[in-house]
Design a protein that fits this description.
It is built from 28 helices and 21 strands. The chain is α/β, with parallel strands linked by helices. The protein folds into 4 domains: about 240 residues, 7-stranded beta/alpha barrel (Alpha-Beta Barrel), CATH 3.20.110; about 180 residues, no CATH class; about 90 residues, Up-down Bundle (immunoglobulin/albumin-binding domain-like), CATH 1.20.1430; about 150 residues, Immunoglobulin-like. The strands form 4 sheets. Strands 14, 15, 16, 19, 20 and 21 form a 6-stranded antiparallel beta sheet that branches. Strands 1, 2, 3, 8 and 9 form a 5-stranded parallel beta sheet that branches. Strand 15 and strand 16 form a beta hairpin. Helix 2 packs across helix 11, helix 22 packs antiparallel against helix 23 and helix 23 runs antiparallel to helix 25. The radius of gyration is 27 Å and the shape is globular. The two termini are about 35 Å apart. About 45% of the residues are buried.
């Protein structure tokens, strides 16, 4: 089949880590650049050796590359590495506790359970683990336990394909337990060798023409917001802005120029393209990229839809029965006389790879993806081309959820794409060189790859406080530089500016607010504030006291948010799959962060609503039923509205429930309006009117299991369930398939 009759597909794997290094102390605080290098970065490009006909784009962020070079040179270390190296016989108590808390930071289902001994150690430590338990638990671990944990943590973070291909690593996997210090040294030596091989392997693939390497502004700043925070309201009018408007396009220019210069230094050529951090684009940003010699960039499909005035693409195209053909072509963006080619990622296909296909057998997942690509090919066949499907994906984090580090899925996908005559695998730059855009966007809507706005990074109290702190530090540095009288060395001021650029990275605000959470939330918060404190100290100034206090408040994340109005049958039974499908869910096993799970009596709490009632469902299998039969009772304690609680108990005459004032002032409702049933599960419904709340108002509550006035269990354990009473616009704002 001729190239002109084939559908071109461009896969861009985005490889990125923020700078974990403290530029003052030189210490790396977190190990993720090193560990992902051993598990993902090398293997992702090495795999292409087997598929020479494929062309792929890799986006390598400079803030990642500098860390890889640092580790490769032997100059970098981190606390995880130092404690891995230390003889298990010599570990101090504090170090043992650190290892127990941190060395299970891997996907438990796909990485920990792949090693029986690793899983046994996890069970021994306990699935629910807190610093309060650390000393007691550590006393039950022997020296052999700690040494095995040191080995297995690092072994699990080496890609499974490399463990199979290396005879010495195969031996250690087969050995499984009772490792020696020599075994541990071997694992760390292999890991270091892989890390040192990453950049040379990309150079090799680049030189033979199989891959294109694009770049990103140096420290991964969310460029439109650094240029002008006011753009957040252009993207999403209701956005609450920080107190101070930031406008620093010169910082964006510097970060882009430095990224290009560093790319030339490492790879010997200028990048043709740039994936903007978080897909964040605006006319101003595109103009800066174009003026610096970049030929192409990319964005999210919602940005394209808004730019074309097609408001419904995120909703109407979610099932893709009728693929939106306008998405599958390149566009030209023109701003103030500067032009740049632009392509847009298919959100649905990318989300399937990132969040869904890991649950499917590899062959079924690839068949589904190929079927969807064929539907796109047929839909675009009758339209004038050229056509390009852009799959722009995280190239590292998704594989932790896949069986065998994603190797079966990737091999099956690459084999299909290599042999399928209907498709042509191309790099983005190659396609655009052969097929210049024919359509010019009259106006580029500012936005990111997430919903076409910047809500993740600005607008909440925590995010806005971070922006204000950043602006204050930058302003203080500028003023200090303007009045420099020789008491501060130029080199110190240069380092202070470097800290500003690091602090402009998008990663810090990714973890602030209510959108995302990880086991390292406190570390990310601390790193951001440490970068800003370093600015002041390097400039010879005293850091403000607020930079020593956390920005991030303790928070808890649901496994799912409510996505639609619902009215379940309150009969105490899991009636069917769809009854609670639209509800929010707190899965106790994963509450508190993606790496911490817990065993408990209550296994999950569902919560949802229609326009009149709040509904809850509490699951706990037979264990919860036995507790209720033996005198325990459930209390739903409301923080908002304050002073309300629901009590559900099982007595000799059956189950009873009441809504009451938690301060003992008696019932607030006639009781007949409270729906409840205790059977296979506990279900209840309460009118919003009886709670005294109105549409748009916040509700926050805990589910507590008590006996005799003593709390047995609280769910969620680290913060309340929080939701907003729905308004008439709820279903319009939360379209649901």
């Amino acid at each position: 089949m001729a190239r002109s009759n084939r559908l071109s597909i461009a896969i861009l794997w985005h490889m990125h880590q923020p700078l974990y290094k403290d530029l003052v102390t030189g210490k790396y605080h977190l190990p993720w650049a090193r560990l992902h290098a051993a598990k993902d970065y090398y293997t992702m490009v090495a795999k292409l050796d087997r598929y020479p006909s494929l062309r792929v784009t890799f986006n390598l962020v400079p803030s990642l590359l500098v860390q890889l070079e640092d580790y490769a040179s032997g100059n970098a270390t981190d606390a995880f590495l130092e404690l891995s190296r230390k003889d298990a016989d010599l570990l101090e108590q504090e170090e043992k506790e650190y290892i127990l808390y941190n060395f299970f930071m891997a996907n438990w289902d796909t990485m920990v359970k792949a090693f029986p001994r690793f899983n046994d150690l996890l069970q021994k430590r306990g699935l629910h683990f807190s610093p309060v338990q650390a000393r007691e638990v550590s006393s039950t671990f022997s020296v052999t336990d700690f040494r095995d944990l040191q080995v297995l943590f690092n072994l699990a973070w080496i890609n499974s394909s490399m463990r199979r291909d290396d005879e010495q690593l195969r031996r250690l996997v087969a050995k499984g337990a009772n490792f020696t210090e020599d075994d541990k040294a071997l694992v760390l030596e292999k890991q270091a060798a892989i890390v040192a091989s990453v950049i040379p392997k990309y150079k090799e693939a680049l030189d033979r023409g199989q891959i294109e390497i694009s770049s990103t502004a140096f420290y991964h700043p969310i460029m439109p917001l650094v240029c002008d925070t006011l753009v957040a309201q252009e993207a999403l009018p209701d956005t609450q802005l920080p107190h101070v408007r930031m406008q620093y396009p010169e910082d964006v220019e510097t970060q882009i120029q430095r990224a290009i210069d560093y790319h030339k230094k490492v790879f010997g050529r200028q990048p043709a393209g740039m994936w903007p951090s978080e897909g964040g684009v605006s006319d101003q940003v595109v103009g800066i990229m174009a003026r610096n010699g970049l030929k192409w960039t990319a964005g999210g499909e919602e940005v394209l839809a808004a730019s074309l005035g097609i408001a419904d693409i995120p909703r109407s195209s979610a099932r893709r029965e009728n693929p939106p053909t306008f998405l599958y072509r390149p566009y030209l963006v023109e701003t103030n006389g500067d032009t740049m080619a632009m392509v847009f990622r298919d959100r649905v296909l990318c989300d399937l790879v990132s969040f869904t296909y890991h649950r499917w057998p590899a062959d079924k997942a690839v068949d589904d993806l190929i079927d969807r690509l064929n539907r796109i090919r047929l839909a675009t066949a009758t339209e004038e081309g050229p056509h390009l499907v852009s799959l722009i994906l995280d190239g590292e984090n998704a594989w932790e959820d896949y069986e065998d580090d994603g190797q079966p899925f990737l091999d099956t996908l690459y084999e299909k794409l290599s042999s399928e005559p209907s498709f042509a695998m191309v790099s983005i730059g190659q396609f655009l060189e052969e097929n210049p855009p024919k359509i010019t966007l009259q106006k580029l809507h500012p936005g990111s790859w997430i919903r076409g706005d910047f809500d993740i990074w600005i607008g909440g109290d925590e995010e806005n406080l971070a922006w204000d702190y950043l602006d204050e530090a930058r302003t203080a540095l500028v003023r200090r530089q303007q009045r420099a009288d020789g008491d501060v060395q130029d080199e110190s001021l240069k380092k202070a500016w470097e800290e500003i650029y690091v602090a402009e990275g998008s990663d810090w605000n990714w973890w602030y607010g209510e959108h995302h959470s990880s086991a390292n939330d406190a570390e990310f918060d601390g790193l951001f504030r440490k970068n800003l404190r370093n600015v002041y100290e390097l400039a010879g100034l005293k850091p403000p006291e607020e930079l020593f206090e956390p920005i991030a408040a303790p928070k808890v994340r649901p496994a799912a948010e409510p996505v639609a109005l619902m009215t379940p049958v309150v009969d105490g039974r899991d009636t069917n799959y769809y009854e609670w499908l639209a509800a929010g869910l707190f899965d106790v096993k994963v509450t508190g962060g993606i790496m911490h799970k817990a065993e408990s009596i209550v296994s999950s709490v569902y919560y949802g609503f229609d326009l009149e009632n709040l509904y809850m469902r509490i699951d706990g299998d037979d264990v919860l039923a036995r507790e209720l039969d033996s005198g325990a009772y459930i209390k739903v304690v409301f923080l908002h509205p304050e002073g309300k609680e629901i009590v559900v108990e099982v007595g000799e005459e059956g189950a009873g429930a009441a809504l009451r004032d938690s301060k003992g002032a008696g019932s607030d409702a006639d009781g007949e309006r409270l729906q409840f049933c205790v059977a296979d599960v506990v279900e209840m419904g309460i009118p919003f009117a009886d709670l005294g709340v109105v549409p748009g108002e916040q509700i926050a509550f805990y589910v507590i299991l008590e006996r005799g006035g003593l709390e047995i269990e609280r769910c969620p354990s680290r913060g309340p369930v929080s939701l907003q009473v729905p308004t008439l616009k709820f279903e319009l704002d939360n379209w649901y398939v």
